[in-house]
Amino acid sequence: MRASTFWFLAVGATAALTHMAVFALAQGHMWPELANALGFCVAFFVSFAGHRLLSFKDAATSVATSLGRFAVTALAGFASNEVVFMLLLRTLDWPAFLALFAALVFAAGQTFVLSRFWAFRR
Predict the structure, then answer these.
(1) pLDDT grade, residue 58 (50/70/90)?
(2) Radius of gyration of the chain, Cα coordinates, nearest whole angstrom
(3) Residues 6+ apart with CB under 8 A from 73
(4) CA distances from residue 93 to 25, 27, 44, 60, 97 in whole angstroms, order as listed
(5) Cα 15 from chain centroid?
(6) Please, which pLDDT band fits residue 122 given cuts at 50, 70 and 90?
């Protein structure tokens, strides 16, 4: 396994755990979809810092360029996450944490491809 792949998985897992922890703390106080969005917002910063410093440390782009591109990448990932989450939660009546976990896994592949080949292009 390449180092960048290892770090991508480690940073992604850390960001996902952050997302789920924020969701767990917030879901009793707001709609699940908003708790998911709040979790995304907090995890975004964990994810960007980890990917910039560890996963894609040899990026040929500036921090500002990478941040802008990663924001677009992350928002695209969140859009697919939220659609899958809402579908599983509201349409298929899955438990909130299971729906969130499945949505995070679904969005992870998309985020890796966009991060690797665009946001942190080498």
Answers:
(1) confident
(2) 14
(3) 111, 114, 115, 118, 119
(4) 21, 16, 27, 44, 12
(5) 6
(6) low
Task: Read off the tokens for 56.
Answer: 């894609």
What are the φ and ψ backbone dihedral angles of 28, each rounded to 5 degrees? -75, -10
Work out the average pLDDT over 41-64: 89
Please determine, for residue 108, whether its predicted confidence score (pLDDT) is greater than 90: no
Instruction: Show Cβ contacts of residue 116 under 8 Å, excluding neighbours closer than 6 positions.
Output: 4, 8, 56
Which residues does 38 contact at the CB level (< 8 Å), separation at least 6? 22, 23, 26, 30
Is residue 116 within 8 Å of residue 69, measured between CB atoms? no
Q: What global pTM score does this model have?
A: 0.85
> Could you write out the DSSP letters of every residue in 11-64?
HHHHHHHHHHHHHHHHTTTS-HHHHHHHHHHHHHHHHHHHIIIIITTT-SS-HH
Q: What is the predicted pLDDT for the residue at 23?
A: 98
Identify whether the C-beta of residue 35 lies closer than 8 Å to the C-beta of residue 23: yes
